[in-house]
């Protein structure tokens, strides 16, 4: 069965971990962490979580494509995307 881990689940785990945080404080801690990740990536940095993986920003070049509904050629603008490279420890844990 597939399980989805949400921000609320993370906050609940922090609150139950014996860190003397209530659920509101744990939710705020999760938000602060995610905001730090977002701001670091937005500024072109890297988020490296030892034993878990590394998040980086990659640039996708502009390219031409085809609208599948009309078969008309369109230009697809350049964009940025987040790339995740799992750490060896995470890869090993999944096997």
TrEMBL record:
GO molecular function: DNA binding; structural constituent of chromatin
InterPro entries named in the record: Hist_DNA-bd, Histone-like_DNA-bd_CS, IHF-like_DNA-bd_dom_sf
GO biological process, one term: chromosome condensation
Coiled-coil spans in chain: none
GO cellular component: cytosol
Family note: Belongs to the bacterial histone-like protein family.
CDD domains recorded: HU
Superkingdom field: Bacteria
One protein family per Pfam: Bac_DNA_binding
SMART domains for the chain: BHL
Keywords annotated in UniProt: DNA condensation, DNA-binding
Biological source species: Faecalibaculum rodentium
Name of the protein in its database record: Diphthine synthase
Keyword Glycoprotein: no
């Amino acid at each position: 069965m597939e399980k989805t881990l949400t921000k609320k689940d993370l906050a609940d785990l922090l609150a139950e971990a014996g860190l003397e945080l209530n659920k509101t404080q744990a939710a705020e801690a999760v938000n602060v962490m995610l905001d730090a990740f977002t701001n670091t990536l937005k500024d072109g940095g890297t988020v490296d979580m030892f034993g878990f993986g590394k998040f980086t920003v990659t640039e996708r070049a502009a390219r031409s494509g085809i609208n599948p509904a009309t078969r008309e050629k369109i230009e697809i603008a350049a964009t940025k995307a987040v790339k995740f490279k799992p750490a060896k420890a995470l890869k090993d844990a999944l096997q």
